[in-house]
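Let's practice the habit of predicting before peeking. Look at the sequence and jot down your guess about where helices and strands might fall. Then scroll down.
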Amino acid sequence: MTSREDLVAFSRKARHDLQNPVAAVTLALELAQEEIADGGDDVSDLISRALRSAERLSEALDTLPGRAADWPLED
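Done guessing? Here is the structure:
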């Protein structure tokens, strides 16, 4: 495998790993927005869900440089 192919494979894996937390944050915030518009009081739980997902995203981003450093590249 070439270094370019390795880089593409890494970026695909990173994208996949980051998509779920982003989708979870988006969904929780959309539901919170609807709850606020409907006058509901379940917003706190939805915001907590969004914050947990954002934390997962942050952790994934923190590990990204280390994961990139592990990929063998041709000189």
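How did you do? Helices lie at 3-37, 43-70.
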